[in-house]
Amino acid sequence: MRATQFSLSAVGAAGHRAMHQRLEGGGIFADPLARDILDDDEWRAAENQAAAPAGRPMRLFMAARSRLAEDTIAAAVARGVRQAVVLGAGLDTFSLRNPHAGAGLRVFEVDHPETQASKMLRLERIATRPLHWPRFVPVDFETQRLGQALDTAGFDDSRPAVFMWLGVIMYLTTEAARSTLAYVGGIPGAEIVFDYTEPLENYTPARRAPMVALAERLAQLGEPWLSLFDPPALAAELQRLGFVEMEDLDLAAIAGRFPAMFAGISPSGAGPHVMIARNFAAGPG
Ligand SMILES: C[S@@+](CC[C@H](N)C(=O)[O-])C[C@H]1O[C@@H](n2cnc3c(N)ncnc32)[C@H](O)[C@@H]1O
Question: CA spacing 20 to 30 A to 140: which of 10, 86, 132, 266?
Answer without folding.
Answer: 132
